[in-house]
Amino acid sequence: MRTSTVTKILFLSANPSDTAALQLDEELRQIGRRIRRAEYRKLFDIKVAPGLRAIDLPYELMDARPEVVHFSGHGSMTGELVFLNEADRSRRAIPPATLSRVFKQLKDKICCVVLNACYSEVQAQAIVEWIPCVVGMSRAVPDASAIAFAAGFYEALAFGRTVAEAFELGLSQIELSADAPANSSDIPKLLVRNGEDATKIRLVLSPEEVAVPAAGVVASATSQEQSTPDRDTSSFAASAIRHSSNKRRFPEGYFRRIGTMHLHIDGGTALPLIEAWAQRFNEREIPTKITRVSRFSRGPQRDELKDTYEIHTPGVNQESLEYFTTSLLDDDKHDIATLVEETLAEIENIKGIVVELERVVAVVSDDAEGSDSSHLKGLQGAVRFDTRKTSFRVEIHYMVDISKGADDKREPLSLGAIVKICNDNGIDIGGWFLFERSDIWAYRSNSFALKIPEREELNAKRLRLQRKLVEASGRAPSDVRVKVVVEESVGIWKTPVTRLGPFKTVPELADWEDGTRKAAVDPSLRAFWVVTPNFLGDKHEEIQRTMVQNLATGVKYTYFLRSFADLKRWQKFRSDLKRKQEHIQRAVDKSMSAVLLHVLDHDQPELQEYFIRNPSTDLREAYKLIRGTNGEVTSGLPMSPEKTRDLVNKLEPLEREAKSRRWTWLPINRDGRQFNAYVIITDLEDTELGTAEERRLREYDLIIADEVSKHGGEVTKSLFDGYVIIFDDEREDRGGRLQQVVKCADRIINLAIGANLPQQRILVDFDSARRVTRAHGYDTISAAIARGRFLLDRTVWNCVTVSDRVKNRWETLCGSDRRISFMSSELDGYWQLTRPQ
């Protein structure tokens, strides 16, 4: 019995990772669009449950209590519906009898079920005993036909047509659609329960047709939102829209406080999806609002930074800017990386949705000014989805609020006029938006930058914009308020996203490496191969503890190293293990060996970082290690059996040689190509020959090798008491490589000071370089090395000096990292690196 005029549609969808991709997003978008243009659009409410796991079906039905249930996904030839497995998101087939049992118990309000999946007529026959009307598919149904039928069916229902009429109009839509294959309109089948008449069942009810609620249930219009026993109010998210645009559930500026982190889900026209996420987050006590965009006007920066705006803008083939959510996150309360992963997992195959995680780093207004200079670490490396594209990290918003009177029906300034004002006054803009607000005219802009602008620059532009807007609008200055908010992107993803696989964190890698298995030795574990300087035993206690246990049981470790710096670090690691773990001294000597890969060609796969278990058996497994923006290993990505086998086949001949010697040098006799590189040149203060000085040089040598290896560089030669260190810059990481270079140079200075070594000079430059073969071995030539040799003696002791090239690249790529600054030096074109207190 219906107790509300609002028809609730529960849209369920499932596209398991091991099934063909379906256009679920397009189906939902078409249904929503058709309903929104229908006569009774306000009487329909869609709740979305994407990525449905089989075990969650009863919950979704009980929670939503819908009149219509729509399932979009896969079906099997044996009549099973395919849901997601709760463990790994693979397929979980549910037989008709099970689905019938679920609907038997939860049939109370449902009057129609649409199973938009192949071969679902068998399922429809099983549940029509409990449900008045059920639509199923008699055979495999093409995507285009399924979408066309659903769009026509729900549009007809929202125009007040009966279920029988809506079904026929859905079939007509298949025939009218240019995309749907011919002769596919006979696939959908309408089944009607005995005693029911689909020609008389319509979902649009007049108030007279709504049942009077039982005593004690409040049903008045003014208190409808409190009638929780029937849960027949419009969706929470729709209510959130009303509140955010009229009553403003959250205080002004609640989501723009300096230092706060928030998550945007920008679904374009997919309002039902946006509503579902807003409801879900608020139920989890994550404050979330929905913003509705009324109008938009493009700015010139949108054409200048096409890649950045493409990934920040929702939509498929065209921009869709109608709705987005903003959720306030708390580092102390929320596991942010997991929250982002859960969000992406639900929508990974839906096209054109943008998910962005960002933090407010500066606010400039008449009332207050401030900024947060703490360094912001990216989370993309910790989230198991590929971002697909890089983007400028700093986003600047000019926020204009103009008072709105009760009689104001037209905005005081057009968006095009504001875009022109910005262009004429040197304010870079990607676009201006008009948000729906009942109390003010809320104009918002966006633009992007590589670094956070200075506060004085932002305030000057803000005041200039405010004056021009007052003049153009004819309003009093007190009626026009302008604020600037600067946000820094932590991570951004645009669907469809690529699932990187079931990562293992470092502790999980240690557990995978463990051959004792809770005190029971794993007889299948024989060896590990550690490729290039990924060995974590000298940096992570969990890895070292596991390794010690394995060595004690005879497990062998072979390290494939990239440079002599790696080799020196590895030798130190072996010595430390023998000193700290006396019971495995023999095992270290017997079971740890190394292969030195001195490879010029950067494209060789061996230069990647891998962890391989049981490489010489059929039980081999491998993980490719992933490093975060700070250069630290964060996780491992499992490799396919084929790629693992190919890698082992390339390394196996070298491993055989390593069995007969401590390390092997593998030369490749050809000169390398030209590449861009950061060059670090170091020099210790002159030392005299003697035992003590020789000891200090060995200690300094070890510091150089250890730090360069850990940060991914290469020591190419020694210069008297110093070194030339090369860091290639072939990675598209928007400054992450440069941060590693600066960190390495800074640590070398500080570690040498802490070890009471002689003073040293360090110079950092950037230029093209090329590896060549010399009589003494491999070498690197670069103009940066030639300049550094000449200028190093004129730099300051115990200080890192950088060239203009490095300083400019830092300000462009890493300007938001306020931990580093520069002061002028006596050398023209060079700067001293400093750390502000």
Descriptive overview:
The structure is a single chain. With 837 residues, this protein is of the alpha+beta class. The chain has 22 helices and 36 strands. It has an eight-stranded antiparallel β-barrel with strand order 10-12-11-17-18-16-19-13, surrounded by six helices. Strands 21-27-26-25-22-23-24-28 form an eight-stranded mixed beta sheet, with helices on both faces. Strands 29, 30, 31, 32, 33, 34, 35 and 36 form an eight-stranded mixed beta sheet that branches. Helix 3 runs parallel beside helix 4 (121-127), helix 14 (506-513) runs parallel beside helix 15 and helix 16 (564-580) crosses helix 19. The radius of gyration is 32 Å and the shape is flat.
Distance between the termini: 70 Å
Helix content: 25-40%
Strand order, largest beta sheet? 10-12-11-17-18-16-19-13
Mean of residue pLDDT values: 79
Radius of gyration using CA atoms only: 32 Å
Detail the poorly predicted runs. 206-248, 373-378, 599-606, 665-671
Strand content: 25-35%
Shape category: flat
The total of helices stands at 22
Note the main sheet.
8 strands, antiparallel, barrel
DSSP, total strands: 36
The secondary structure category is alpha+beta
